[in-house]
Amino acid sequence: MAARRTATLAWLFAALCLFAGSPRAQAREQPVLLCSIRPLQLIAAELGSREFEVRALASASASPHAFVLRPSERRELANARLFLWMGSALERPLEELLQRQPPRAVLALLPAIGPGGVDPHVWLDPRAAVSMARAMAAAIRETGVAQQTLDARLAAFDQSMRAREAHTAALLEPLRATPFVAMHDGYRGFVARYGLRQVAALPGDHEHHPGARSLAALRRVARETGEVFQLSQ
């Protein structure tokens, strides 16, 4: 009986040692490239490999305009090798936190896309998504993380976005002259890229819900299909 128990314990110890050396266990020790929101994680993952892990700080359902970090997320932010975020135009709650608790390296993607006043939801434009990926790749190189396939994966992402842009343009071609209104002013880059006719959108102040007056005006524009303009509260 004692011999059987000893053999069982030895088998369990060997299994634990094997698990500790498995790829899953080793992945926890990889450098972490942390992204503030899911869209950035999806782009960064196209550049990733076994040499680093890409994670999102906020869950897919969290709003980047107002999310609050839990203690575990603050620790994850502090330990990240590189933190990618859009910038205060989209994620204002993170600005003060990054000043008080800066990660090892930070890259704000919005300045890499264009001047101020740009719609911060730029990833909806496939060409802007490629520009973001290039900025990410440059930041990854600066962290010193060995990345042998970075250039090849960046080129593959560029090619896939070109194909996606052409496919989407073909799908939307019959709708280009059709006016529409948007409940959220976050599609300007997408609309401009594909030449769509958005005639109105609710205000771009993401930290406040639209009032009854704005909603009524949006419904009126939807009925009248007027000129392109930005509604105000």
Strand percent estimate: 5-15%
Distance between the termini: 79 Å
Strand order of the largest sheet: 2-1-3-4
Q: Can you tell me the residue ranges where pLDDT is under 50 for at least 5 consecutive residues?
A: 5-27, 226-233
Question: Which helices and strands occur, and which strands form pairs?
Answer:
Layout (H helix, E strand, L loop, with lengths): L1 H19 L2 H5 L4 E4 L2 H8 L7 E4 L14 H9 L2 E4 L6 H9 L5 E3 L17 H18 L6 H23 L6 E4 L5 H7 L2 E5 L10 H13 L9
Parallel strand pairs: 1-2, 1-3, 3-4, 5-6
Annotation keywords:
233 residues, alpha/beta, four-stranded parallel sheet, two-stranded parallel ribbon, 10% strand
Q: How would you describe this protein?
A:
- 48% of the residues lie in helices and 10% in strands.
- It is flat.
- It contains nine helices and six strands.
- Helix 8 links the parallel strand 5 and strand 6 (197-201).
- The model is unreliable at 5-27 and 226-233 (pLDDT under 50).
- It has helices spanning 2-20, 23-27, 38-45, 71-79, 92-100, 126-143, 150-172, 188-194, 212-224, and strands at residues 32-35, 53-56, 82-85, 106-108, 179-182, 197-201.
- The chain has a four-stranded parallel beta sheet with strand order 2-1-3-4, sandwiched between helices.
- Helix 6 (126-143) packs antiparallel against helix 7.
- With 233 residues, it is an alpha/beta fold.
